[in-house]
Amino acid sequence: xxxxxxxxxxxxQPPKRVRHIRLLDSKGRNGVTDIRPSKRRNIGDGSRLVMPxxxxxxxxxxxxxxxxxxxxxxxxxxxxxxxxSCSGNILERRIRPQYIKPTMNHFDEAAAGWDKNTDHVKRxxxxxxxxxxxxxxxxxxxxxxxGSGTGLLSFMLNSRVxxxxxxxxxMEMIKTARQKILQTKTKNISTLKLDLMSAEHHAAYDFIYxxxxxxxxDDIPKILGIFFSLLAPGGYVCVADLIQEDGSFHSQxxxxxxHHGFIPEQLKEQFAAAGFTGIxxxxxxxxxxxxxxxxxxxxxxxxTAKKP
Length: 308
Prior knowledge:
Radius of gyration: 24 Å
Helix content: 10-25%
Number of domains: 2
Mean pLDDT: 74
CATH superfamily of the largest domain: Vaccinia Virus protein VP39
Shape: globular
Largest sheet: 7 strands, mixed
Strand content: 25-35%
Oligomer: single chain
Order of helices and strands: EEEEEEEHHEEHEEHEHEE
Distance between the termini: 58 Å
CATH architecture of the largest domain: 3-Layer(aba) Sandwich
Low-confidence stretches: 1-102
């Protein structure tokens, strides 16, 4: 039995001397693949290969084990693929990082330079200022920032609450936020890489807020219901986002699939339908962009509400 981790489920003929392979699938569970003698073969360097069986999507990340390679990459169907090997209990040569290319979305790619954008900083500062005016923040509160990115807004609010949890589904954004926490020695901010729309999160918060993240959510009633369930009675929610625009705001993002902003009055009705009360909104910031000789303004609103 050879225990390995693979990242590709394309078929590959296994080598000699390997009769069984234990794989970790995408959920960290074990699966066993039997290899028929007629399909065993060497690849020339004595490596023991690992490829998942159909239905197993093994992954290289977040398993808690180091990744190694057999010394070379093989090919299947003309495409490059990584071969992992094991000699006894000794894993051999570390895998080259370029062989692992995780899927990167727009926010993963933008994470490293996010805080260098002065407009990102200015709008976070404007929203933080309005939140402090509108909400009776307390040092006893536990807060959640949804779609937190690098935590720009939270680092402007953390001195006013007990603890803040940053939740984002972009791993690179979370990594950047963690680096900031370490560099600034911030004690009351933690991070959680999570898609709140598809994964359960059991916690109770006194305050939930989001900056420019709601328009990326397709099912608004569902996320508002999640906010409501996570808030303690008497808790507050604040959402800062775009007032409905013509679709040009995300013109440079090829895979954008969200909303082109919101009509605040309509969003207010959705918050009320979710059970929130005391719903108010105001314009807090205007994003100004120039393209050639054209100038565009994109106003942002801040909506606040309370759970009874």
